[in-house]
Design a protein that fits this description.
heterodimer; A: alpha/beta; 7-stranded mixed β-sheet; 6-stranded mixed β-barrel; globular; B: 5-stranded mixed β-sheet; about 45% helix
């Protein structure tokens, strides 16, 4: 899809010659001449202008009526007046009209002081009203939702919130009810407006009609300061502005970045800041003493940790969570490799990929950017549910489909919320992504029917659907005049889980083959975009937090003695769990990760934690894992307190800036790691956070010596920089791919189960898992988000439910045959779920699906009434 | 009287609403003839007739049809049958008594403009007329006048009657489109104009019932011949609804350009005995009022515009000296307040404010200064809204204050002395009474 090009033109505004890009709206064009035209309803993020508020009326020579500047594109030679008597009168009249029904309760209004209506009344209004009649009254304020309050008296009916709901998040909940002066914003039958992006309407509202309930009456604009950083609660890494009052985060606003978040936030990002200031937060170092964790001094905690780690030495494993910064990951890798001589560290949840493939996936020519999602001819989303895994991706995909007619193709197991927007949706078996890609590869490469059919069958998809998918992608750009297919720009958004497990390697090869068949390499606007399992998944890999790669995806020096486990440079996460369980490893370092909650094989990790001699953890909240197994717990910094960098899934280095002071005894974690390393005999010689960044950048050649100043507030995509040439070379395929083990084999075998039982023989069900947007420790402790807290549901098709005699809302126990492994859940009937498959959430604190998965993508389970 | 009856020919013949009678009177012959002509030729006849839209805006119908892009994309014709303006009831009679005339005109227009899908958007209150149209469409379909390849030609067209849910605003063409698409009936921003991006984003032609009903006559007479009727810039005949204080209210088909007096005092019989005309709305309740002095003006588009008003949809409302003008203004303002969609600020707030001010005037809580405020509010509405609904209230109310200010002032004064204490008002210092404000 061609991106809009705007040639520069010259027009005249208030007697000034102004250069501006052609066809941008006059409101924006005027800014090029430093002229402000007041607006209420105009917000380009919301799509086409509506011209409802009439605030931006201006005079254009040659047009008899006043025109709305928000909907008039600038043209060469246009002559515009914004200061004539006629314009001033019309604008003042609109202000007067708007204030007719607007209560002047500014002194007690949250918006007071940062209110466009106040500002515009002051700047463009007459300063007095001729309206003496009673104003319109509503009951106020009402709860529009648990997080948003609505004051309908203050509403000026600018349509912004309704347009957001209808045209951006497409939840279609907010509507205008009644008519004329009685119009008000509401929902069908007064239902609460609960949606993943609902909080954005608070920020969109130009008056105090929609306010954040957690923020209501907490501060006035002159009490607070804004501090820019990024949100680290998911891989979207939205740019945010923390509103800070007295070292407390009071609110999170978007720091509009068109290439990252497009100015939107999800409700988790907007409201889970509450998790920073809760009593549950660990603010002191803790050490196990007499069987219980007790707060201790830093000195004692350091000594204990150093002692435990030193004792284990190379028999230490480290697991790193997604909210870890590049610097922390890098320093921990130094500590592990150079301090303890252990190579057992991982930031991925399951299975390791050959270094070769990590390098291939990082090749600059294969990288798609966030904006590419908006302009590609086609986007394939595979093995990922954007609204859960990286919510802002969801909005970007919707935008591309709605505004630029991007062809969206979905290949998921669980029904996706984007299905209504998709040109094509292919439903596969849980974990079927690998075989689907193989089948796609065979269809695109023109391989034999038999081979394609076998792979499609293994994915649980009809071959016809695979063909349709291939055709959708191949012909997304249409044909040229001679009937030749125009090479399309295709972006593949893939979930990291595609590369999990023993089959991950083949899945990634198939993915690279797809990129090759569709000619993505080096094509502007095309490429791969991974949604990592953790926020900074990409950055951690680039920083060398992998068992088989050092910083910059370098070879790990193969010197003997680096690892005491023979035959391996380092163990991956699953290997660590096994080795700890067997006693081959004895210490475990947990950096911002709770393995029982987030690893796909809970039982293995339970065993590993029990067997580990020493467990050192950095954490913000105590979980069962820590409460029972940790020996030393260092308090982790909250994301608003951190200094460092992260890497966005599209390769953008972004900067976290400390916006509030550390509470209690919390210390900067990079400093904790440096000190711990020192106690282990490794002098890292870093005295500021900036030094830590510099040390990381030095170690990663393709970052090209970038500094924090270069990254600045907007970030920098390294694949676009000259230094990207230093990225390690890798073969990009096409690779030879394996065939399914046995054509037409049952799914049980595909899923790696040796028992050979397929569904239908014994009425068993295949379990698929997903992680809800709300399944996060930060949500668990945020008071405002309690209503969203993920609870375990068993999503099941009505057919299966009927067969098993289960009813909606019924409590059930799901088991997988292993003793002690069970999950309790309530039944949620879903017509869209394929019979034979059930879905449970993972990432929950209790009853998480990982108790049943054992690291397998599609285990068989049985469901029993509880 | 003297004008030829085109639209109203045989209008009261029993059974004209059935295909049999309509065909006996020569119905659908013009469609047959048109389908044998090249589509461009039919379009040319429409352009040559210079017939102006009968819905209110008065834009040349043939020219509008020619704006539609050529090509094979989905194009739409929407017949605007949402006749909701107070004072307008001509479309109702045309649809009720002669639905096939409309259908024939609609079919010829789709052929001329290369359109394959047509909708008749009819206001929900016209349930009887909608039923009649539905029945007529069934008859027409059975006779092969619509559907696939009609009458053996290459032209296919489907027609759907869609009933509105009772909103005046849905007569505004873009709100009509939104409503037809199943959305809240709110006007859209123009441009894009419907001819380029209308229903379902496709090129759309929107015409009034009367305009489309005229089409068979234009094609039958030939555009040039039709253009000889009426005046140079207001060609043809027009059905005018006359209501209010006249002795014979009703629909009258006239040749455009006859003196208004002939219509109001001649055809409609003038005001009741013993009363005189105070003012009249020449084009429905949304047109600025004219006074008895203007009765000798020619009734056509341009003369009415020149007199500071408009012919609009051709609906005359006569107000005689028996009614205080404040009541007329209030009635009217309340209607537009009720019907304002609320999308744009000046209309939503301005209509509301105007009603409140008029209520105050009538309640005796106003001063003459309020008339200035009210006039300025009307001034602030006019031309500044998203669609013309706001103007539809502001123009007549504004013209009333302008032309009858002394009556408004007297009304204020009378109401003030009546209220708030009625007859028990405390004695005032005599010196303060004259000119008290």
């Amino acid at each position: 899809m061609p991106r809009p090009e705007h040639r520069p033109i010259t027009f005249s505004i208030d007697g000034r010659e102004v250069q501006a890009p052609e066809n941008i709206m006059l409101v924006d064009g005027a800014k090029h001449g430093d002229i402000e035209i007041p607006v209420f309803c105009y917000e380009p993020k919301l799509g086409q202008p509506v011209g409802a508020c009439r605030m931006c009326l201006v005079e254009i020579e040659g047009t008899p009526k006043l025109q709305t500047a928000c909907s008039t594109p600038v043209k060469d030679g246009m002559v515009v007046h914004t200061q004539t008597e006629r314009v001033r009168e019309a604008q003042a009249a609109v202000v007067e009209f708007l204030l007719i029904n607007h209560p002047l309760d500014c002194p007690v209004c949250d918006k007071g002081g940062e209110c466009p209506l106040q500002d515009i009344s002051f700047g463009w209004g007459k300063g007095r009203s001729r309206f003496v009649e009673p104003k319109r009254h509503f009951v106020k304020p009402l709860e529009l939702s648990p997080v948003v309050a609505i004051d309908r008296e203050r509403c000026i009916l600018c349509y912004r919130c309704v347009r957001f709901s209808q045209e951006v998040s497409e939840d279609y909940q907010l509507v205008l009810l009644e008519r004329g002066a009685e119009t008000f914003v509401g929902t069908f039958d007064g239902h609460p407006y609960v949606a993943p992006f609902s909080g954005n309407i608070v920020e969109l509202c130009p008056v105090g009609a929609l306010t954040s309930r957690p923020y209501r009456f907490r501060a006035r604009p002159w009490d607070v300061e804004g501090a820019g950083s990024i949100c680290t609660l998911c891989p979207s890494q939205c740019n945010v502005d923390f509103t800070v009052r007295d070292e407390r985060v009071m609110r999170v606003l978007s720091r509009n970045h068109a290439d990252v978040d497009d100015g939107w936030l999800c409700d988790k990002g907007r409201f889970a800041y509450q998790s920073i200031h809760v009593d549950e937060r660990i603010t002191q170092p803790m050490v196990r003493d007499g069987g219980e964790l007790r707060p201790v001094s830093w000195e004692r905690a350091m000594t204990e940790a150093a002692r435990g780690l030193e004792r284990a030495g190379a028999r230490t494993a480290a697991l790193v969570g997604g909210q870890t910064t590049n610097e922390e990951g890098f320093l921990l890798a130094r500590l592990m490799r150079d301090g303890l001589r252990s190579g057992h560290l991982d930031s991925r949840a399951a299975g390791s990929l050959p270094l070769e493939l990590h390098r291939a996936l990082s090749r600059p020519e294969l990288q798609a950017s966030m904006t590419d999602l908006e302009y590609a001819h086609a986007v394939l989303v595979i093995d990922c549910e954007p609204v859960d895994d990286a919510p802002i991706f969801d909005l970007r995909l919707r935008k591309g489909v709605r505004r630029n007619r991007v062809k969206l193709a979905l290949a998921t197991s669980r029904p996706s919320s984007l299905e209504d927007n998709a040109a094509l949706s292919v439903r596969m078996q849980p974990g079927g992504g690998r075989w689907l890609l193989v089948a796609l590869d065979r269809v695109l490469s023109g391989a034999g029917e038999r081979e394609a059919a076998a792979a499609a069958a293994a994915a649980g998809v009809e071959l016809e659907r695979v063909r349709a998918l291939a055709e959708t992608l191949r012909t997304a750009a249409g044909e040229d005049d001679s009937g030749e297919v125009v090479p399309p720009e295709v972006v593949v958004v893939w979930g990291e889980r595609l590369g999990y497990g023993p089959e991950g390697e083949q899945a990634i090869r198939a993915l690279l083959n797809l990129a090759d068949r569709l000619g993505m390499a080096g094509r502007q606007g095309a490429g791969l975009l991974e949604v990592p399992g953790g926020t900074n998944g990409r950055g951690l890999r680039e920083a060398g937090v992998l068992p088989n790669a050092g910083p910059g995806l370098s070879e790990v020096p193969g010197e003997p003695g680096l690892s005491e486990v023979p035959g391996e440079p380092g163990l991956d996460a699953a290997g660590m769990a096994r080795a700890l369980g067997h006693g081959d490893l004895s210490a475990l370092y947990l950096l911002h990760v709770d393995p029982l909650r987030s690893m796909p094989d809970r039982q293995a990790w339970e065993h590993a934690l029990e067997s580990a001699g020493t467990v050192v953890a950095h954490a913000s909240y105590l979980s069962d894992a820590l409460r029972h197994h940790a020996d030393v717990v260092f308090p982790a910094e909250a994301y608003a307190e951190k200094e460092g960098t992260m890497v966005h899934p599209d390769g953008r280095l972004q900067r976290l800036r400390p916006t509030i002071a550390h509470p209690g005894g919390v210390r900067a974690e990079w400093r904790v790691l440096v000190e711990l390393a020192a106690r282990l005999g490794l002098q890292l010689d870093l005295s500021t956070g900036m030094h830590a960044t510099a040390a990381l950048v030095d170690a990663v050649p393709f970052y090209g010596g970038i500094t924090l100043e270069d990254i600045g507030g907007r970030g920098l995509r390294w694949p676009e920089q000259a230094a990207a040439a230093a990225a390690p070379a890798a073969e990009l395929g096409p690779f030879a791919l394996e065939s399914p083990p046995d054509e037409g084999a049952g799914r049980g075998e595909d899923a790696g189960h040796g028992d050979g039982t397929g569904r239908g023989d014994d009425g068993g069900l295949v379990l698929g898992t997903y992680r809800s947007i709300w399944a996060a420790p930060e949500v668990d402790v945020s008071p405002a988000l309690q209503f969203t807290r993920a609870r375990q549901h068993l999503e099941i098709s009505p057919t299966d439910a009927q067969r098993l005699g289960l009813a909606q809302g019924q409590a059930v126990t799901v088991v997988n045959g292993h003793p002690g492994a069970s999950v309790t859940a309530t039944v949620a009937l879903r017509h869209s779920v394929t019979p034979g498959i059930v879905y449970l959430q993972d990432g929950l604190a209790d009853d998480s699906a990982n108790a049943l998965t054992n690291g397998q993508p599609a285990p068989h389970v049985e469901v029993r009434p509880a | 009287m003297s004008s030829p009856h085109l639209l109203f020919a045989n209008i009261d013949e029993p059974g004209l609403a059935t295909r049999a009678v309509y065909e006996r009177r020569g119905g659908y012959e013009t469609l047959r003839r048109a389908l044998r002509m090249p589509a461009e030729a039919v379009l040319h006849e429409l352009e040559a007739s210079a017939v102006r839209g009968r819905g209110g805006a008065g834009f040349q119908m043939g020219k509008k049809a020619s704006f539609l892009p050529k090509g094979s994309m989905d194009k739409y014709l929407c017949c605007n049958a949402d006749e909701s303006e107070p004072g307008a009831f001509k479309d109702r009679e045309l649809m009720q008594k002669n639905p096939h005339q409309l259908i024939e005109g609609l079919l010829i227009t789709t052929y001329a403009a290369g359109i394959n899908r047509a909708f008749i958007y009819i206001r929900g209150e016209y349930a009887l007329q909608a039923d009649i149209l539905d029945a007529a469409l069934v008859e027409a379909r059975d006779a092969g006048y619509l559907g696939e390849r009609i009458l053996g030609s290459e032209h296919s067209v489907s027609v759907v009657v869609h009933r509105g849910a009772g909103a005046y605003i849905c007569g505004e063409e873009t709100a009509l489109l939104d409503s037809l698409e199943g959305k809240r009936g709110n006007p859209r921003l123009k441009p894009p104009f419907p001819a380029n991006q209308g229903l379902y984003q496709g090129p759309t032609l929107i015409n009034n019932v009367e305009t489309l009903s005229t089409v068979p006559h234009i094609v039958a007479l030939g555009g040039a011949e039709y253009a000889k009727l009426g005046t140079e810039t207001s060609t043809g005949t027009k059905v005018v609804s006359v209501s209010g204080h006249v002795q014979r209210p009703g629909n009258y088909e006239i040749e455009l350009g006859i003196p208004a007096r002939e219509l109001i005092c001649g055809l409609a019989g003038g005001p009741p005995e013993g009363h005189s005309i105070k003012c009249w709305f020449p084009g429905g309740s949304s047109s600025p009022i004219l006074t008895a002095d203007d009765l000798d003006l020619a009734y056509d588009f341009d003369t009415m515009a020149k007199a500071g008003s408009m012919m609009g949809s051709g609906s005359i409302i006569v107000v005689d000296d028996s009614v205080p003008l404040v009541y007329v203004a209030l009635k009217l303002a309340r209607f537009y307040r009720h019907e304002s969609c609320g999308k744009c600020t000046p209309c939503r707030e301005g209509t509301n404010w105007t009603v409140k001010m008029l209520e105050r005037i009538d309640a005796g809580e106003a001063t003459p200064m309020d008339l200035d405020i009210m006039a300025s509010v009307q001034h602030h509405i006019i031309g500044n809204c998203l669609c013309v609904l706001g103007d539809s209230m502001a123009m007549p109310v504004g013209s009333m204050i302008e032309k009858f200010r002394p009556e408004f002032e007297a009304h204020i004064e009378t109401a003030r002395t009546r209220s708030p204490w009625g007859t028990e008002a405390p004695e005032r210092e005599p010196a303060l009474v004259p000119g008290a404000a």
